[in-house]
From TrEMBL:
Residues covered by the Rieske domain: 98-167
Entry function: Component of the menaquinol:cytochrome c reductase complex. The Rieske protein is a high potential 2Fe-2S protein.
GO-annotated molecular function: 2 iron, 2 sulfur cluster binding; metal ion binding; monooxygenase activity; oxidoreductase activity, acting on paired donors, with incorporation or reduction of molecular oxygen
Gene3D superfamilies: Rieske [2Fe-2S] iron-sulphur domain (2.102.10.10), Single helix bin (1.20.5.700)
InterPro entries from the UniProt entry: Rieske_2Fe-2S, Rieske_2Fe-2S_sf, Rieske_Fe-S_prot, TAT_signal
Native organism: Paenibacillus sambharensis
Subunit-level organization: The main subunits of the menaquinol:cytochrome c complex are a Rieske-type iron-sulfur protein (QcrA), a cytochrome b (QcrB) and a cytochrome c (QcrC).
Keywords: 2Fe-2S, Disulfide bond, Electron transport, Iron, Iron-sulfur, Membrane, Metal-binding, Oxidoreductase, Transmembrane, Transmembrane helix, Transport
Top-rank taxon: Bacteria
Transmembrane spans: 24-45
Stored Pfam families: Rieske
Protein's UniProt name: Menaquinol:cytochrome c reductase iron-sulfur subunit
């Protein structure tokens, strides 16, 4: 090999080494940048879609009162539920009027008046009816609307287990037509 050829070969080798160093640097920098960008962006995407991925706790029942305390006379019981609405979590207090019917079945009515949403009470006028003080709507013990309100009171889903009454979601009244 002539001296000229040797110089040429050496030059080519050096040239190839410089190219691969440049490539190595650009791959390394590119990789590091992509890694850092991914680390910053992925949590944001996760945060944005989290409420969509989270299962809603719909349909869960809450322990409200001992079964032995329920009589044929409606009584008001208060209880707390845990609500998750997107990113907002809350523990509102609800109430229900719970009683037994003639066959001993336990049922629970929502206290929300079906006229304009005021709160009803049992027997405030000594007539064995639910009464709403806002516009004087009246309902039977089963929640049937007698005056002013256009619909019967809503019911809670009820489950009786191990001596306790559990209440679930509110549903339309199934006791009256
Ligand atoms: S809101 Fe109950 S009667 Fe009007």
């Amino acid at each position: 090999m002539s001296k000229h050829d040797q110089r040429e070969q050496t030059h080519n080798t050096v040239k190839r080494k410089e190219m691969s160093r440049r490539q190595f640097l650009s791959y390394t920098l590119g990789g590091a940048t992509a890694f850092m960008a991914g680390g910053a962006v992925l949590p944001m995407i996760r945060f944005a879609v989290d409420p969509i991925l989270t299962k809603k706790s719909e349909g869960t029942y809450v322990k409200v009162v001992e079964e032995s305390k329920i009589t044929t006379e409606p009584q008001e019981f208060k209880f707390q539920i845990h609500q998750v609405d997107g990113w907002y979590e809350s523990d509102p207090q609800l109430s229900a009027w719970i009683s037994k019917d003639e066959s001993g079945e336990i049922f629970a009515l929502s206290p929300v008046c079906k006229h304009l949403g005021c709160t009803i009470s049992w027997n405030t006028q000594n007539n064995n009816q639910y009464f709403c003080p806002c516009h004087e709507a009246r309902y039977t013990k089963d929640g049937k609307n007698l005056a002013v309100a256009p619909n019967p009171l809503d019911e809670y889903e009820v489950d009786v287990k191990d001596g306790f009454v559990y209440l679930g979601p509110v549903k339309g009244n199934t006791r009256v037509e």
